Amino acid sequence: MSSDRVRLRLEHIVEYSDHIAEYLTGYDLDRFLADRKTVDAVERCLERVAEAIVQIGPDAIAAMEIPLPWNEIRGLGNRLRHEYRRIDRRLIFDIARNDIPPLRDSVLRALGE
Question: Which of 33, 38, 71, 108 is deepest in the core (most CB within 10 A)?
Fold first, then answer.
């Protein structure tokens, strides 16, 4: 993958991470679980983040020193696409709140920002 494409995918990760943060502003777990539209929006953004990471590839991610649980992210993307009815929404909230912000920060460092 060209460096331009890698950069574009990294920018996508930041973009969708920002969307997630915006969607969750003012939300706690109970409000999140009660708001189907927000759940759907956050799940879709997580799916896009996972896909961007998969497209970049584990070697390029490692070379940029972005700490990622590669298999877990790939698995999450697959579950969001194929097993969406069995996804625990509490897990989605936890990932969105606790894992996405540090990922965004790591990606920004890799982008030199």
Answer: 38
Token duo for residue 68: 């990622």
Packing angle, helices 3-24 and 36-56, rounded to 10: 160
pLDDT, tens only, 35-52: 999 999 999 999 999 999
Q: CA 82, 54, 17, 2 torsion: positive or negative? A: negative
Q: Which residues contact 6 (CB under 8 A, 6 or more apart)?
A: 56, 60
pLDDT digits (tens, 9 = 90+) for 43-85: 999 999 999 999 999 889 888 888 877 678 878 888 888 887 8
Beta strands per DSSP E along 1-113: none
What distances in angstroms separate CA 104 from CA 17, 36, 82, 86, 87, one per listed residue?
A: 6, 25, 25, 26, 23
Handedness of CA 58, 14, 89, 83 (dihedral sign): negative
